Amino acid sequence: MNFSELRAQVQDAMGRTDVPLYIYDLMIDDMNSDLRVMEMQAQTVLTASSESVSLPSDFISVESLYTDTGSARTNLTPITEQSQATGHNRSGRPYYYAIHDLELTLMPVPDGEYDLTLRYYAKLPDLENDTDTSRAMTR
User: 73 has which bridge partners?
Assistant: First the structure.
Protein backbone atom coordinates (compact mmCIF):
# COMPACT_ATOMS: atom_id res chain seq x y z
CA MET A 1 0.00 0.00 0.00
CA ASN A 2 1.41 3.40 -0.90
CA PHE A 3 0.61 6.72 0.74
CA SER A 4 -2.18 7.61 -1.70
CA GLU A 5 -3.96 4.32 -1.03
CA LEU A 6 -3.58 4.73 2.74
CA ARG A 7 -4.91 8.26 2.58
CA ALA A 8 -7.92 7.15 0.51
CA GLN A 9 -8.73 4.35 2.96
CA VAL A 10 -8.50 6.67 5.99
CA GLN A 11 -10.71 9.26 4.30
CA ASP A 12 -13.24 6.59 3.32
CA ALA A 13 -13.31 5.20 6.87
CA MET A 14 -13.82 8.69 8.30
CA GLY A 15 -16.37 9.68 5.67
CA ARG A 16 -14.50 12.88 4.85
CA THR A 17 -11.88 14.11 2.41
CA ASP A 18 -10.28 16.92 4.42
CA VAL A 19 -7.98 14.91 6.72
CA PRO A 20 -4.86 17.08 7.29
CA LEU A 21 -1.58 15.54 6.15
CA TYR A 22 0.12 15.98 9.54
CA ILE A 23 -2.32 13.38 10.93
CA TYR A 24 -0.31 10.69 9.11
CA ASP A 25 2.94 11.87 10.74
CA LEU A 26 1.25 11.74 14.14
CA MET A 27 0.05 8.21 13.36
CA ILE A 28 3.59 7.04 12.49
CA ASP A 29 5.02 8.73 15.62
CA ASP A 30 2.39 7.00 17.76
CA MET A 31 3.12 3.60 16.20
CA ASN A 32 6.88 4.10 16.74
CA SER A 33 6.17 4.81 20.42
CA ASP A 34 3.92 1.83 21.07
CA LEU A 35 4.44 -0.85 18.43
CA ARG A 36 7.15 -3.54 18.66
CA VAL A 37 6.81 -6.20 15.98
CA MET A 38 9.40 -8.44 14.38
CA GLU A 39 9.25 -6.49 11.11
CA MET A 40 10.67 -3.48 12.97
CA GLN A 41 13.84 -5.35 14.00
CA ALA A 42 17.14 -4.48 12.35
CA GLN A 43 20.76 -5.44 12.91
CA THR A 44 24.01 -3.57 12.49
CA VAL A 45 27.63 -3.89 13.57
CA LEU A 46 29.09 -0.91 15.41
CA THR A 47 32.85 -0.51 15.84
CA ALA A 48 33.76 0.75 19.30
CA SER A 49 37.19 2.09 20.16
CA SER A 50 36.11 4.85 22.53
CA GLU A 51 33.61 5.29 25.35
CA SER A 52 30.74 6.43 23.07
CA VAL A 53 29.38 5.09 19.80
CA SER A 54 26.64 6.70 17.70
CA LEU A 55 23.48 4.66 17.25
CA PRO A 56 21.65 4.37 13.90
CA SER A 57 19.33 7.31 13.16
CA ASP A 58 16.29 4.97 13.04
CA PHE A 59 17.05 3.47 16.49
CA ILE A 60 14.16 3.03 18.96
CA SER A 61 15.33 0.42 21.49
CA VAL A 62 17.82 -2.44 21.99
CA GLU A 63 16.80 -6.03 21.43
CA SER A 64 20.33 -7.37 22.09
CA LEU A 65 23.91 -6.13 22.07
CA TYR A 66 27.00 -8.34 22.11
CA THR A 67 30.66 -8.63 21.20
CA ASP A 68 31.89 -11.66 19.30
CA THR A 69 35.60 -12.45 19.30
CA GLY A 70 35.15 -15.63 17.29
CA SER A 71 35.80 -17.83 20.30
CA ALA A 72 33.32 -16.19 22.67
CA ARG A 73 30.15 -14.12 22.41
CA THR A 74 29.59 -11.73 25.30
CA ASN A 75 26.23 -10.06 25.86
CA LEU A 76 26.46 -6.50 27.13
CA THR A 77 24.22 -5.58 30.06
CA PRO A 78 22.28 -2.31 30.22
CA ILE A 79 22.94 -0.04 33.19
CA THR A 80 21.84 3.45 34.15
CA GLU A 81 24.02 6.43 33.39
CA GLN A 82 24.35 7.04 37.14
CA SER A 83 25.73 3.51 37.69
CA GLN A 84 28.07 3.94 34.78
CA ALA A 85 29.54 7.15 36.19
CA THR A 86 31.00 5.28 39.18
CA GLY A 87 33.37 3.17 37.08
CA HIS A 88 33.93 5.20 33.98
CA ASN A 89 37.69 5.58 34.42
CA ARG A 90 38.38 1.85 33.95
CA SER A 91 39.29 0.36 30.58
CA GLY A 92 39.00 -3.13 29.15
CA ARG A 93 36.51 -5.23 27.22
CA PRO A 94 33.06 -3.58 27.42
CA TYR A 95 30.46 -5.46 29.49
CA TYR A 96 27.91 -2.71 30.19
CA TYR A 97 26.19 0.03 28.23
CA ALA A 98 23.90 3.00 28.70
CA ILE A 99 21.97 4.95 26.07
CA HIS A 100 21.52 8.69 25.98
CA ASP A 101 20.62 10.90 22.99
CA LEU A 102 21.33 8.25 20.31
CA GLU A 103 24.73 7.53 21.88
CA LEU A 104 25.77 4.16 23.25
CA THR A 105 28.14 4.67 26.19
CA LEU A 106 30.28 1.67 27.10
CA MET A 107 31.77 0.50 30.36
CA PRO A 108 34.54 -0.19 30.87
CA VAL A 109 35.94 2.12 28.21
CA PRO A 110 37.20 -0.11 25.36
CA ASP A 111 40.93 -0.79 25.55
CA GLY A 112 41.02 -1.56 21.84
CA GLU A 113 38.68 -1.86 18.89
CA TYR A 114 35.59 -4.05 19.39
CA ASP A 115 32.82 -4.94 16.95
CA LEU A 116 29.44 -4.76 18.65
CA THR A 117 26.48 -6.51 17.06
CA LEU A 118 23.34 -4.51 17.77
CA ARG A 119 19.88 -5.97 17.18
CA TYR A 120 17.38 -3.18 17.65
CA TYR A 121 13.90 -1.94 16.92
CA ALA A 122 13.96 0.57 14.06
CA LYS A 123 11.49 3.36 13.37
CA LEU A 124 8.89 2.69 10.72
CA PRO A 125 9.74 4.26 7.37
CA ASP A 126 8.46 7.78 6.90
CA LEU A 127 5.47 7.96 4.59
CA GLU A 128 7.23 10.76 2.72
CA ASN A 129 9.71 8.21 1.38
CA ASP A 130 6.86 6.66 -0.58
CA THR A 131 7.03 6.96 -4.37
CA ASP A 132 3.94 9.17 -4.19
CA THR A 133 5.38 12.70 -4.05
CA SER A 134 2.08 14.57 -3.85
CA ARG A 135 2.14 14.52 -0.04
CA ALA A 136 5.52 16.23 0.25
CA MET A 137 4.49 18.95 -2.20
CA THR A 138 1.29 19.87 -0.35
CA ARG A 139 2.82 20.33 3.12
Answer: 68
Q: What secondary structure, in 3-state letters, does 40-102 show?
A: HEEEEEEEECCCEEECCCCEEEEEEEEEECCCCEEECEECCHHHHHCCCCCEECCCEEEEECC
Dihedral pair phi/psi, residue 124, rounded to 5°: -65, 150
Q: Cis ω on the peptide bond leading into residue 108 (within 30° of 0)?
A: yes
Query: pLDDT (tens digit, 0 to 9) for every residue of the chain, 139 residues total?
Result: 677 787 888 888 888 888 787 887 888 888 888 888 888 999 999 999 999 999 999 999 999 999 987 788 899 999 987 777 666 668 888 999 999 889 999 999 999 999 999 999 999 877 655 544 443 333 3
Give CA 33 to chain center in angstroms: 11
Report the candidate in 110, 95, 101 with the shortest Cα–Cα distance to residue 59.
101
